[in-house]
Amino acid sequence: MPFANSKGVQLYYEESGKGLPIVFVHEFAGDIRSWEPQLRYFSRRYRCIAFNARGYPPSGVPEPVSQYSQAIAADDIAHVMKSLGIAKAHVIGCSMGGYATLHFGLRYARMARSLTVIGAGYGSDPDKRARFLKDTETMARRFDALGTPEAISTYQVGPARVQYQNKDPRGFREFCREFAEHSALGSANTLRGVQAKRPTIYSLGKALARMTVPTHILSGDEDNQCLEPGLFIKRACPAARLTVMPATGHAVNLEEPGLFNSLTDDFLALVDSGRWRPRDPRSFNPSTMARKA
To answer: What are phi and psi of 218, to 5 degrees?
Structure first.
């Protein structure tokens, strides 16, 4: 099995294809297998790398919660790239991985050709922050007490997951089966060290305003906790574009793989061809009328 070393933690990865590199960063409920529809598609023209985050076997599962954080998650992306001799890559992340991808762009801009951020924003709404933190700790305790299969019985049919279940029951069953195989310790530590302590999207406004890495934000229109944060990123960051997917929940790349692949392919092509451009400053005019010359 191939592993990349990230400050003493071994991170399992898989690689396919040749060309400019893409690094895929999975969500909390997923792992390397969550990117299979993308690995098969993009490896035709790109060098694709997907890895399991720390806490997700066969990657290492550190026991101290202190070994898990949002900054560490971004650092892990950089260490995987450095281990593979990759100086610069497109980075694509979903949910927890989307947060890590965004922070990677803020911390390692010179290593990012582009950022694709799917469904990032959970826990950012000030009105729902206390509930989010309470639910996160409750879920961590379920992993501690019950083990993964029983702990996830409610999580996997949450309000932004049922769309996937309704559209693709076969794919959803596979998702649930793979989720049930995760480490209970790794999941609990990830919830406590990363999810509960990461900065909200709204706290990143000044940093996002300075970021120039080409960025594509995607959100399902029924993923209620990520819609407003996605719009905030779009408004704060001139380098960002936003796509909202109709009748879609959280894991857009699994729920609508064909549409996601097509949209992402177009975005990467713009970046790779040098034709991507940041937002035209004239579009920030508060008036609906053009200014006089």
So the answer is: -125, 140
> Within a 10 A sphere around the Cβ of 277, how many other Cβ atoms?
9
What pLDDT, in 10s, does the model give residues 149-180?
Answer: 999 998 888 999 999 999 999 999 999 999 99
pLDDT at 287: 77
Q: Taking each helix axis as running N to C, give the angle between helix 70-83 and helix 96-107, from 0 to 180 degrees, rounded to the nearest 10.
A: 70
Q: Encoding tokens for residue 76?
A: 């892990």
* Pairing status of strand 47-51 against strand 240-245: unpaired
pTM, two decimals, is 0.96
Q: What Cα–Cα distance (Å) separates residue 99 from each residue in 140, 234, 256, 286?
A: 19, 15, 20, 30
Element (H, E) at 22: strand 21-25
Locate 164 and state its tokens: 């996937």
Task: Determine the Cα–Cα distance for residues 179 and 31; give it in Å rounded to an integer.
Answer: 8
